[in-house]
Amino acid sequence: MSSEAPAPSAQQEAQAPSEEPKLVGDTLGLPGKIGQEVAKAPLGTEKGQIDPNAPRGVFGIPGAPKVNYIIAILWSVWVGWIFSTVGAFGGIMAGVGHMTVMGIGPYAKSFAKTAPGLNKTLTDSVRTSNQFLVGLSALISTINYLRAKRLAWPVGIALAAGSIAGALFIPWLTGGKVSFKQYQGWFGLFVFVVGAFLFYETTPKGQESKKAAKQAAQAFEKAIKEKGDLAGQGVAFKSFSPTHATFTFFGAEFKFNPILVFFGGILIAAISSFLGVGGGFLYVPFLTTVVGAPMYVVAGTSAMAVLLSMITSIAGYITVAKAGMDWGLIGVELIGIFIGSMIGPRTQKYIPDIWLKRIFVILAFYVGLRYFSLGFFGKSWVP
Question: Which of 275, 251, 10 has its CA nearest to residue 123?
Fold first, then answer.
């Protein structure tokens, strides 16, 4: 009687478990969570794998996209200019730069199945990188608009107080838990919805409830043409209490409820922290609707709220979610941000209020539709 085991049948061979892929097994000298997740990624030269011998790219990862620093600076000038001009879209444009222009998006998505932990860690890193750029732009814009008396600082303080509270728990709640595909989809959806809302505000019906803002904007534009006293007719506060506050700008009076603004700041910061953006694309329509202020005041006020929420959110992502940073790239980008943020407040006064909103709307529709379709349907519906 033979003791040899019978040869496995074809069916048994088909059911046999496939060999587990070999993992990198080493952090490759990369710090924090990025290094930990790289060690868990499959070893190889294919898409969704790590080749330790490949040239190092963004975040120091072998095989990751190499960033052209000249393009990074030029794109950052654009980011700083658009944010300091309309008080929004800095984080969104930073996100477009990191995801698409620099190619981090497709690279992060390539690990969705092979190394989901790395996919989510790169998502956190992109979110935090976006916010670094917006944070510097917000700081410069806040100083410039405050000097020009085009910043409603009590409104900004109420918004910022709420935004700090909203930005505190999002990194803890979502850090390491959001895939890049999910991030892209929600990023696009929120931008698209806000663009649609702001488009309504540019229509005749939407303009009916903005008479004070229109009056102030026209007076400001007239003073620009006549080279009048801009700072002398700038933001001046008449009264302030927890439930009622009033300020004037170029002869028009604006009233707001600080408590309502505070809770608005909580909600906006929570959404913007999740998306990894400054939140200006939400602060702007909030301020034009709830406060009724013209864009010439809204941009600086939004920047002040964004500044404090960015500091809070960045600290949360780095300490709680352990997001990794490419400090060389961030440093280069901040040069461009500084240049763009210095130009923005000086050119904004020459652009009509209605066109500032239209710029916002065009960008919102395009960016929103692109990332919504990429995230939820896997293919962009626009170029």
Answer: 275
How far apart CA 80 and CA 282 sit, in angstroms, is 17
- Predicted pLDDT of residue 210: 66
Tell me how far CA of residue 134 lies from CA of 61, 82, 189, 337, in angstroms.
25, 11, 20, 8
**Once rounded to an integer, what is the mean pLDDT over residues 77-100?**
87
Sequence-ordered strand ranges (E) for 146-301: 236-240, 245-249, 252-256
How big is the CA angle at 269 (ends 263 and 271), to the nearest 5 degrees?
A: 110
**What's the whole-model pTM score?**
0.77
212's enclosing H/E stretch is helix 211-226
Pairing state between β 252-256 and 236-240 = unpaired
Kindly state the tokens that stand for 362: 């065009």
Asked if 295 and 109 count as a contact pair (C-beta separation under 8 A), the reply is no
Closest CA to 138 of 18, 312, 3, 375: 312
Do residues 284 and 302 lie in contact, with contact meaning Cβ atoms separated by under 8 Å?
A: yes
Q: Per-residue confidence at 97, pLDDT binned at 50, 70, 90?
A: very high
| DSSP character at residue 357 | H
For residue 380, what is the DSSP state?
A: -
DSSP secondary structure letter of residue 152: -
Give CA angle at 63 (61, 64), nearest 5°.
60
Highest mean pLDDT among 68-72, 182-186, 245-249, 316-320: 68-72
DSSP bridge partners of 237: 247
Positive or negative, the CA dihedral 28, 33, 34, 38 is positive
CA angle 116, 121, 123 (to 5 degrees): 95
Could you give the angle at the alpha carbon of 273 between the alpha carbons of 201 and 162, nearest 5°? 75
Number of C-alpha atoms within 13 angstroms, CB side, residue 217? Answer: 23
